[in-house]
Amino acid sequence: MVDFVAHNLAPIMFVVVMAMLLIGYPVAFTLAAGGLIFFVIGVEVSHISSEIRLFWPLLQSHPERIYGIMYNDTLLAIPFFTFMGLILERSRMAEDLLDTIGQLFGPIRGGLAFAAVLVGALLAATTGVVAASVIAMGLISLPIMMRYGYDRSVATGTIAASGTLAQIVPPSLVLIVMADQLGRSVGDMYVGAFVPALIIICVYCLYIFAVSIIKPQWVPALPVEARTLGGGVWSLVGILVAAALIYLITYHTIFADMRYEVRLVWAATVATLAAYLFSLANRQFKLGILSRLAEQVVIVLIPPLALIFLVLGTIFLGIATPTEGGAMGATGALFLAFVKGRLSFRVLKQALDSTTKLSAFVMFILIGARVFGLTFYGINGNIWIEELLLALPGGEYGFLIVVTIIIFILGCFLDFFEIAFIAVPLLAPVAEKLGIDLIWFGVILGINLQTSFLTPPFGFSLFYLRSIAPMREWTDTVSGRVLPGIRTAEIYKGALPYIVIQFLMILLVIAFPGLVMHYKSAPPASDIQIQLPPMGGAGGGMSLPPLGGNTNDGGGGLGLPPLGLPPAGGQGTGGQGAGGGADSGGGLALPPLGLPPLGAPGTTPAQPAPVETAPAPAPNDLSQPPKFD
Predict the structure, then answer these.
(1) How far from chain centre, in Å, is Cα 33?
(2) Which residues fall in a compositionally biased region of kind Gly residues (predicted)?
(3) 3-state secondary structure string across 232-282
(4) Among 162, 170, 282, 372, which one is least packed by beta carbons within 10 Å?
């Protein structure tokens, strides 16, 4: 019995900890307690079984491993992006965006749904927080959609799915955590996820377009009386064309002598600033050149777009690291809220409180995962996982499909932080052994974890929307009508088409890795070759000048005093050595080197015998999972 427990201690530990998590025990404490309890069991069993390599002094590594989490610069981006998103959400930027884009797309069927998807994408690129996006759009868009006759399932499903875009659109918190757990660059993860995120947004819009064709009564256009900004789309097109012309002119004239990245940044800044200032002047001085719609769209859209460029543009161009980009984004969000007159002490306190809670939540889960990981690796849990997954049929594609299904099922019950800190460190070594690019693997997992926010019964996006959607009949303050409440089953039903879209997107990324692998398009620094001209005579050899030679004999000596070196060939003081010109007078009596002249024509330098050197010991990084070799 003891031998059976020792041989299967890793799966027993994994199943017990997962069961405790599913029951509902706090994640951080469950992981830490499971790690410590099974550590004690492992130490006691190690006296009987040689398969388990745990011993009491190993507990002393925990302080250093926990400290390794605290000085991780990558994780510092999490509080920055969280704070930025909360400031923007509390400064009512989502309200302005939804109202303006809803007016822009109002004349077409499904316009409010299109607006929800696009605003969800913009909020995702500025906040990176699902809760903020879903709650903001649910409070603002859902009553308007209900007021004008949208199908309740379509409306709730679109809002919930659009809010989850914050999980895959950079600067996503999921991608930051994924890059940290996979040991890869956050910038590479952002670049790799960019194209799949755009495809997901486009497919969402295609689904709404298909609904507007098949069931137009489910997604009606805004009535004329609700279009408060009127028309004027051509005026908007005109100012966009003018901004594009300013960009091209400044790019090829004023900033032509600058480096590519600097030219792009400055030309785009000048063009955007010109359009923004012209719109402000049109409103302030009532010029009447732009329509109210064009004026409002430019004034409302440019600040968040500028913030997106400040964060993502600087990261993609290599100007800033993700942590620095998050710091700039937080500063930019404070500036925007201050300019709009919406930055108060209450807003700042709420944002700081929420940011601190989320950051502490992440840190405690990661600490618990480190305690769990030390024991799990000590009882050969990583070997058990590797043997189990490497035995799957189908090679890397079989592995990816099985892992996708497992993560999808876990996502129905666990939060993405829990999955990222527990499952990803166990899956990454297997993926690397199979030759799978870890950025590609991370993006696949990121899309999968985005899907987990929509999967009943515990999809967090569905919970957020359920908490603000009316459950009973309610009176619309604008129209005065009594509207029915929204049932939970209708929210789940509306999410199902988007779950199917997400799952198909995972299969698409698996089938076409190039959607992610374009992050490798920049040539690595190791490919740069520097060729020096030959330093020698006609033979092209590398003939070093004599160290102590006479500078007047044409030998090209350095003019240094003779060092008294013996001839390199060990033939006495009169030979042609590397230090030619040395006499038998007092000098440094070094032993013969036994080497032929470096620049002697027609000779082949002898190959020196290989010297056995002991490899340098690898640094003992206690912040990483231990290796028991």
Answers:
(1) 30
(2) 567-588
(3) CHHHHHHHHHHHHHHHHHHHHCCCCCCCHHHHHHHHHHHHHHHHHHHHHHH
(4) 282
